[in-house]
Design goal:
The chain is mainly alpha-helical and 160 residues long. The protein contains 3 helices and no strands. It is 64% helix and 0% strand. The longest helix is centred in the middle third of the chain and has 94 residues.
């Protein structure tokens, strides 16, 4: 019985192993098909490798972008904290200055009410001279006393 060349039906289609022209043609086709398959597999591996390389490069780029964004966020957050602290200080200063302004306005309103009477003679009705002072000429002397500067003696200046 003659053996078939890969034909499972048991029929070799009129070709036997002994006929070299047909076997040579089949071997050539098989060789070309195998070579074509190898080339196709090689191209497939190269495409797969290029795809993996591209994905790795894209992943690295995204990681770098994320690192830059994190750094920017950290700098921005730090700057935000600094500005918030500055704003807190400024709000406290505004509050303090507003209170000072309110006090000064009260003083001015009080002085306006007494505009017709600029000396303590008018305020107290007395003329003893001790409390005479002009509010508009010397507003810092509100107490009206003849105050002299306080001098410290040299030996007490640095004494503890």
């Amino acid at each position: 019985m003659a053996s078939s060349c890969g034909n499972s039906s048991g029929s070799d289609g009129g070709r036997s192993r002994d006929s070299p022209p047909n076997d040579g043609l089949m071997d050539e086709k098989k060789r070309k098909r195998m070579e074509s398959n190898r080339e196709s597999a090689r191209r497939s591996r190269l495409r797969k490798q290029k795809h993996a390389t591209d994905l790795t490069a894209e992943s690295n780029k995204i990681k770098n972008d994320n690192d830059q964004i994190r750094a920017t966020i950290n700098v921005t957050t730090q700057r935000f904290i600094e500005i918030e602290a500055e704003n807190s200080v400024l709000r406290a200063q505004v509050s303090e200055l507003s209170q000072r302004l309110e006090s000064l306005n009260e003083i001015l309103n009080s002085m306006k009410m007494n505009a017709n009477c600029t000396t303590t003679q008018c305020m107290s009705g007395g003329t003893d001279g001790l409390f005479e002072f002009d509010l508009f000429e010397n507003p810092w002397n509100m107490m009206g006393f003849n105050q002299q500067p306080i001098m410290a003696s040299a030996d007490n200046v640095f004494g503890y």
